[in-house]
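# step 3/5: fold
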Amino acid sequence: MNLKRLGILSVAAVFLLMSFIKLKHITIYMIGDSTMANKKPETFPETGWGMAFGQYFDNTVTIDNRAQNGRSTKSFIAENRWQPVVDKLEEGDYVFIEFGHNDEKIDKPLVGTSLEEFRTNLTKFVLETRAKKAFPVLLTPTARRNFKNGELKETHFGYPEVTRSLADSLKVPMIDMLAKSRNYLMTLGDEASKQLYNYVDSGHVNYPKGKKDDTHFSQKGAETMAGFAAEGIKELKLDLAERLVKH
């Protein structure tokens, strides 16, 4: 066999190997609260952004959305929702971690956390994910639609900053969902931004009296937020970006 032919076969073998590695199936576990969670049909059109996340990936990725309504880092651990994720994690999997909406409710002792406890719980998620040779990704909470006199007011206090600080200190990839969603809401403005949230006219089968919800998303809003997360993956240049499909 001449050297030229041997070289061609070697290159082909490398590409074949790379294709095999790229096609290794992985799971993205999602842990968080109602803004991310899967929703029951009777709450439609309310849609968690985790429900829309799968459309951004090829068929080598499974989305396992464990987010639950009303949960904080504290209650997610206390209700034994985190350990089953750890038990199932395999090398190369990802865990997307987005909390804050309920941790900040310090008047509710079963869910509310101090900033220090919030940091401790996020650290637990990160270190236990890494111990399984999987990859944690931290996300700040999405913005509430809270316009006052045309200005979008912040509602999450210091919790997003804890997420940012921890990502920096532990060198964890972080997607700033709060910044991305706030910027987009301000671009849309007060009235137009309602389309992203669960605003429903009266007479709807699931909401006979209508609904005005500035926290939870419509289907359009969920798809928009999932798009921000996919955008963040590309910005971070995660290996996971190779599995994104074009939109």
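# step 4/5: annotate
The longest strand covers residues 26-32.
# step 5/5: archive (pending)
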